[in-house]
Amino acid sequence: xxxxxxTLSRKKKPLKAADGKSVRFYACGPTVYxxxxxxxxxxxxxxxxxxxxxxxxxxxxxxxxNITDVDDKTIAGAQKAGVPLKDFTQGFxxxxxxxxxxxxIKKPHHTPRxxxxxxxxxxxxRALIAKGVAYKTADxxxxxxxxxxxxxxxxxxLKMDELRAGARVxxxxxxxxxxxxxxxxxxxxxxxxEVGWDSPFGKGRPGWHLxxxxxxxxxLGQPFDLxxxxxxxxxxxxxxxxxxxxxxxxxxxxxxxAHCEHLLVDGRKMSKSLGNFFTLRDVLARGHSPAAVRWLxxxxxxxxxxxxxxxxxxxxxxxxxxxxxxxxxxxxxxxxKPDYKLTSAKIEVGTDEKAAQxxxxxxxKAFDAxxxxxxxxxxxxxxxxxxxSETNKLLATGSLSEKSAMLVLLALEHFDHVLGIFPLxxxxxxxxxxxxxxxxxxAQREAARKAKDFKLADKIREELLEHGxxxxxxxxxxxxxxx
Length: 483
Ligand code: AMP
Ligand code: ZN
Fold this sequence. Notes:
Elements: E1 3-6, E2 11-14, E3 23-27, H1 38-56, E4 61-65, H2 72-81, H3 85-102, H4 118-130, E5 134-136, E6 142-144, E7 168-169, E8 181-187, E9 204-206, H5 208-220, E10 226-230, H6 234-249, E11 257-260, E12 263-265, E13 268-269, H7 280-285, H8 290-298, E14 306-307, H9 310-334, H10 354-372, H11 377-396, H12 402-419, H13 422-427, H14 430-450, H15 454-466, E15 469-474, E16 477-482
Parallel strand pairs: 3-4, 3-10, 7-8, 10-11, 12-14
Antiparallel strand pairs: 1-2, 5-6, 6-8, 8-9, 12-13, 15-16
Helix pairs in contact: 1-8, 2-3, 4-5, 4-6, 5-6, 8-9, 9-12, 9-14, 10-11, 10-12, 11-12, 14-15
Zinc ion (ZN) binds at residues 28, 212, 237.
């Protein structure tokens, strides 16, 4: 079972499915006013790995991710572009789903849009007013009274005496120093233009925090099992979600809270507001592969900050290429095509396969163990490369049989249930392309050697090595293998 750090109790604890059947999982989704940047995708890849690890443990997951398609930023963006809000947000929502697919992130089972759930939000506000924890203001807005919720601040560690008594914030985003009553419903004003819904409190629109409270419980019930997001959402967003949902029903919102640390650039959070961001599209346009981006994001533990550099992305590129070559080599040895179908039951293991079998089953166990211990993806990657080097040792001694290569392929498949890297490479036909490229380079080197241009021949050899390909001259001609 997965042991996962819980932000609320501040300790690792087993992640359970309360109904004994499936883990009900809510993740805060994107605000669709621009393309998402790779910092955002660090959190979305983390949530994908979290889901895949739970699935690997044998428990199905019901994954819900909202789409914030109405808030201050989307309204401002639509006005600047001079188009209706829906037209503006739909393009970015579509781009977001495209980006998720490019990074091999499994699509959540439900992706509710805020604008299509305003009725449920209004109901929640009514319940909060009835309980006496929310109040209307003269302009037709509704605010949550944080002082009236005794658990306010428990998730983020905010102390009640740090609250500014009676103060109100209209903006959805504010810091702990300005913790105050926050808007559940924002009365319509000139800045909102066409955007607004009629409600018992007057025309207006919901606050951002309210969107998640209403949609999560509508799709998953209350309490649900797991709530996740980036660490910047702990305060005020998740604190406010808890206040709203628990304040209305008296029941906890979620039983487990998981937060992913930030992706940094030069030591600062990658963010739109600081302008130090790269969208996934920027990075791919520079010629990087989605597989390398995913690999880079997996290479840091989710509870540790990760500094982004193009050098580290290059290194990730090298790692995925090495892995792709290794897989190609195993496919060749196993005499299988990339789309092979294989189960361990079909492989008759004999004495020739003993060594590979021992190495593979130890690696699979180690892989599961490190992931089930608070999702240690860097360790999981280390396990994968340990198996690569064990296998290379067997190859070097000539003791890797055809069936052994099949066992190694099955181990790679096991890892990929969570790492999800090979489908991204197949999409780009990386192994095939790379192979062709390697063969072309080898032919060029042979031509250089024939022309006695040994300098060029060595340069090509080095170039291959830089791409993780080791060239060796054997009595039967040059042969390549993963370095
Ligand atoms: P947003 O679209 O701004 O609401 O953000 C979507 C998700 O990305 C949220 O879960 C944020 O916590 C997360 N996020 C934003 N910036 C970063 C970053 N630099 N590193 C990791 N996650 C981030
Ligand atoms: Zn949310």
